[in-house]
Specification:
Length: 354
């Protein structure tokens, strides 16, 4: 499982797919194609008013093609990362998707700090994506004219086919959260009619990282390890690749994954496994650790954790799920990365002083 965010389990995907069967009926019942059950306004940004994109527009993904007949006005994201992409483009989603893990990480609001910054005074309703609960009626009432699903793990072929028959679905090419966030941003921006905005926000996020590096040259070349969580059975999940998510972010700050971690067998999410007794091998200039809350008790109870030299020095950067940081860097977007850069770089420089 990826860090810090539920994948909105596949079983929920079936419920979302079922919603597609009634979305079309609900949309047809409205006299105003851009209206909604709660009377909210259209969601495209002012910048999209004079789009350079020609419609109809066809986009492809892993499960097939989707045709967007006209510039979308009511975009519905199926994951928080998809909501982030829309927000980064200046587009307010018609609803913000949330589940139990998201609620726990946000103190019950369903909104991460960087999303709150982007939303300002806007208060979209929540689309509750819960196992055992059905969002069918809510999705129908929302009347989307495009569904954004680059980061929704519940999307499979059957779900896509049923949804896409009613509302065009913009989705991933390989797997959810499987492409660079820049590519997903460009795809969504094209569909929404704001391709230039994508380049603007991508450049801003990259510039933020580069400026942080320039302002903190002491970080360049320092080594790190990252412990993702206790897998049980005597093993910890650790970062074994810096090609995606948290590893890609930390490396973009100028740090390098410690050599030992790169020798571990790696899964598709970039993780390796280390036994409890071998935790001491995870030494580096800085050790990052993902925790459920601010409490470090899940780790300090292990003798091996306390023998890591970096831990003994206090050179630890904690990424608590309740802070939003694991979500910000594990499921990146332009706005989450800018926010995370401001949060994480000071923690790194402080750890390096230990």
């Amino acid at each position: 499982m990826k860090i810090g965010q539920s994948r909105f389990r596949t079983s929920v995907g079936a419920a979302v797919a079922a919603a597609a069967l009634v979305v079309g009926l609900a949309a047809c019942s409205s006299d105003d194609a851009t209206g909604s059950g709660n009377g909210s306004a259209t969601t495209t940004s002012d910048a999209a008013a004079e789009s350079t994109v020609s419609y109809p527009l066809t986009v492809s993904g892993k499960f097939g093609e989707s045709t967007i007949e006209a510039q979308p006005q009511r975009a519905l994201p199926l994951s928080p990362q998809d909501a982030d992409i829309l927000l980064s483009l200046g587009i307010t989603p018609i609803a913000m998707p949330t589940d139990a893990q998201n609620q726990a990480a946000t103190g019950g609001t369903g909104i991460f700090p960087w999303e709150a910054d982007a939303l300002g005074d806007e208060t979209p309703e929540q689309l509750v994506m819960e196992q055992g609960g059905s969002p069918v009626e809510q999705i129908a009432a929302l009347e989307p004219d495009v569904i954004v699903s680059t980061g929704f793990w519940g999307l499979d072929q059957a779900t896509f086919d049923q949804l896409n028959a009613q509302v065009p679905v913009v989705h991933f090419d390989t797997q959810a959260n499987g492409e660079p966030w820049e590519n997903s941003t460009r795809k969504v921006a094209e569909v929404m009619g704001v391709p230039e905005k994508a380049e603007e926000v991508i450049a801003a996020a990259h510039d933020k990282l580069e400026q942080a590096k320039a302002d903190n040259p002491q970080v360049e070349g320092k080594t790190y390890n990252a412990i993702i969580g206790d897998m049980g059975g005597g093993q910890m999940a650790v970062l074994a690749s810096d090609e995606r998510g948290i590893g890609q972010f930390i490396s973009s700050l100028g740090m390098e994954l410690a050599p030992y971690a790169t020798t571990l067998p790696v899964d598709q999410d970039g993780r390796g496994l280390v036994s409890y007794e071998n935790l001491g091998d995870l030494d580096a200039d800085v050790v990052f650790v993902v925790t459920r809350t601010d409490d470090m008790g899940d780790y300090t109870k292990f003798e091996g954790w306390n023998t890591i030299p970096a831990v003994e020095r206090g050179a630890v950067v904690q990424l608590a799920r309740t802070s939003g940081l694991p979500n910000a860097v594990g499921f990146p977007s332009a706005i989450s990365l800018e926010w995370a850069t401001d949060q994480v770089m000071p923690k790194v420089t402080e750890a390096l002083e230990k």
